[in-house]
Amino acid sequence: MATQASTAKPQSRSMLADIVDSIFTPGTNSGLIRAMDMSFYALFAVLVVMVVLTRGNGHICALFALSVGLFASIKWFLVQIAEAEEQHRRERLAKEQQQEADAAIKGGKAQ
């Protein structure tokens, strides 16, 4: 049991460290996204319980629908950011390869 407890602590510390690091660095990281996911899951659980307890109150159902929409839009936005970063990385790599090829051609002509 000691190994299970010791493996759980570094994961929670790393998530907390990722959250703190995300304050000082641009962009997102896995710890920040994981914390956001857990926060939304807790919100969904609370709203589902409230819908059951209030027997389907319209206001609570509307809040639940809004929170699901917000969660989906944030997840979509994060996917779009990741795709844009990947495309930028590929373009930069292609540009570097083109510059190396041009330098090789110029080096061959000089000889």
From TrEMBL:
UniProt keyword terms in alphabetical order: Membrane, Transmembrane, Transmembrane helix
Cited InterPro entries: Pkr1
Region described as Disordered: 92-111
CC per GO annotation: endoplasmic reticulum membrane
Record carries keyword Transferase: no
GO biological process, one term: vacuolar proton-transporting V-type ATPase complex assembly
The UniProt record lists the keyword Transmembrane helix: yes
Cross-referenced Pfam families: Pkr1
Coiled coil: none
Origin: domain of life: Eukaryota
Transmembrane segments: 32-53, 60-79
Designated name of the protein: ER protein Pkr1-domain-containing protein
